[in-house]
Design a protein that fits this description.
By secondary structure, the chain is α+β, with helices and mostly antiparallel strands. The protein folds into 2 domains: about 40 residues, no CATH class; about 90 residues, 2-Layer Sandwich (Beta-lactamase Inhibitory Protein, Chain:B, domain 1). The protein is about 30% helix and about 35% strand. A 4-stranded antiparallel β-sheet has the order 3-6-7-8, with no helix packed on it. The longest helix has 16 residues. The protein is elongated, with a radius of gyration of 26 Å. The model has no long low-confidence stretch (mean pLDDT about 80).
């Protein structure tokens, strides 16, 4: 008789604190979607079932995602900063290095956001999304 009371007490506790089945399924699906990498992380871009991210090479981006819609390229000078006490922050008079910069744009059409990839000297430095795309 004591064990039956314990079991009924345990079942009443279980029923009281057990969330609804719908909530359990929602939490389970949310954990799978957000915890398994179905959605790309910040600084990453999904190309089909593959993922490219900051620090990857231009060649990997090209092989995983294909050719971009547009490419803009230029060279930028990297300047050293110095700060004399009396005069505030200043630039060095000449660049300390020249960096080749490319912005690759992936326009998927009006149903998705445009992805922009900044590449510096052959390495992905930044991935960000813009507005909805369009058809050319």
């Amino acid at each position: 008789m004591g064990q039956e009371k314990f079991e009924s007490w345990l079942l009443s506790i279980w029923d009281r604190f057990m969330p609804s089945r719908h909530l359990m399924w929602f939490v389970l699906v949310a954990l799978i979607v957000f915890g398994s990498g179905i959605l790309p992380a910040d600084g990453a871009m999904r190309c089909g079932s593959r993922l490219v991210g900051e620090g990857d090479s231009r060649d990997k981006l090209l092989s995983e995602c294909g050719s971009p819609t547009t490419v803009e390229a230029w060279d930028e000078g990297e300047y050293e900063y110095f700060s004399p006490r009396r005069h505030g922050m200043r630039y060095a008079p000449t660049p300390s290095a020249v960096v080749h910069v490319e912005i690759w744009t992936y326009n998927y059409g009006p149903s998705r956001f445009v992805d922009y990839v900044r590449i510096e000297d052959g390495k992905i430095r930044r991935i960000y999304s813009g507005h909805y795309g369009n058809w050319h």
